[in-house]
Design goal:
By secondary structure, the chain is an alpha+beta fold. The protein is 20% helix and 28% strand. It has 2 domains: 56 residues; 200 residues, Umud Fragment, subunit A (Ribbon).
Length: 269
C-alpha cells in the first residue's frame, strides 16, 4: 500500500488563507449582530481578514475546482510548451482535486496524448507537466527518442531543424502514437540515449532495456507513463518512474499567454 503523501503548494496556502479569512468573516458577522450599528473604524483583522474572505474563497474555488494557470519553468516540453508559458489547466476534464491529499472527485480519466499537469511523485508540493504516452496495461516501446504503443509500428516523420533560437541544432520530428500526433524535439547527438533508470523498483519490475535508446515497459495498473516532448532534455518517467493516478492534477488545454512571446497567447495544445 502506497503511503499517503501530503502536498503543500499554492493550493494548500490558498485553502489555509480561505479558512482563516472565513473565520474572521464569521466572527465579524456575529459581532455586528450584537452591535446597534457598524463602527466607523474597523479593526485591522476585519479589513485584512473578513473583507477578503469572498475574494480569496472565489480564487481558491476556481483554482481547485475549475481551472488555474501555472507557469512553465523549463524547456522539457519544447516545442509544444515554452519557458514562461502560462497554461490554462482544465480540472473538469478529470475532476477537481482536493487540497493536501489531491483526492479527486472523478469526472473523467486521462487519455493518451494528453498534456497533463501533476504532482511530482518524489515531492508532491511541486507541479510538473508532461505528455501522457502510456495508460495502465499499455506496452510502450522506445527507440531513438520515439515511441510505439502495444506493438504498433513506429510512426515518425522528420520535419526539419528547429527555427526558434532555443531549437537551433535540434531535430523537429512528427510522432504519431496512441492518439493524435505531436512535434518532438530530439538532439541529434543524443537521440534518446538517456538511459532508463532501472534502479527504480517500479521501472525494474515492468521494463526491459536492450540499450539506452531501446527499451520497452508495460505500464502497471493505476499508473501512467509520462514523457516530455523534448525527449533528450526531460526528467520524466524514465527517471522517476510511473505516475500514480492519484497525483494527476489536471489537463493543460491552452497556453494563456507568455510575456516574452505574446503571439503564443491562447495557443491550443
Amino acid at each position: 500500500m502506497q503511503a499517503l503523501q501530503i502536498g503543500f503548494s499554492i493550493n494548500e496556502v490558498l485553502f489555509l488563507v480561505t479558512l482563516a479569512t472565513g473565520v474572521c468573516w464569521e466572527v465579524w458577522r456575529h459581532r455586528l449582530r450584537r452591535l446597534a450599528e457598524e463602527p466607523a473604524k474597523k479593526p485591522l483583522w476585519v479589513s485584512f481578514g473578513a473583507e477578503l474572505f469572498v475574494v480569496v474563497a472565489m480564487m481558491f474555488t476556481c483554482r481547485v475546482a475549475l481551472a488555474d494557470w501555472p507557469k512553465v519553468p523549463s524547456g522539457s516540453m519544447e516545442p509544444t510548451l515554452r519557458v514562461g508559458d502560462y497554461l490554462l489547466v482544465n480540472h473538469l476534464a478529470y475532476g477537481p482535486r482536493l487540497p493536501f491529499t489531491n483526492t479527486a472527485i472523478e469526472l473523467g480519466k486521462p487519455q493518451r496524448g494528453d498534456v497533463v499537469v501533476f504532482r511530482y511523485p518524489l515531492d508532491v508540493s511541486q507541479f510538473y507537466v508532461k505528455r501522457l504516452v502510456g495508460l495502465p496495461g499499455d506496452r510502450v516501446a522506445f527507440r531513438n527518442g520515439a515511441i510505439s504503443i502495444n506493438g504498433a509500428p513506429f510512426d515518425v516523420q522528420m520535419i526539419g531543424d528547429g527555427q526558434a533560437d532555443e531549437d537551433r541544432g535540434q531535430w523537429m520530428v512528427r510522432e504519431t502514437a496512441g492518439a493524435g500526433s505531436r512535434t518532438l524535439k530530439i538532439n541529434p547527438f543524443v537521440q534518446g540515449r538517456l538511459a532508463l533508470n532501472l534502479s527504480d523498483p517500479g521501472l525494474a519490475a515492468h521494463c526491459r532495456a536492450e540499450a539506452a535508446d531501446a527499451w520497452e515497459c508495460t505500464v502497471p495498473a493505476g499508473h501512467y507513463m509520462m514523457l516530455g516532448d523534448n525527449r533528450d532534455n526531460s526528467a520524466d518517467s524514465r527517471v522517476w518512474g510511473f505516475l500514480p493516478h492519484e497525483q494527476v492534477y489536471g489537463k493543460a488545454v491552452r497556453v494563456l499567454f507568455n510575456l516574452s512571446d505574446l503571439k503564443r497567447a491562447w495557443t491550443a495544445l
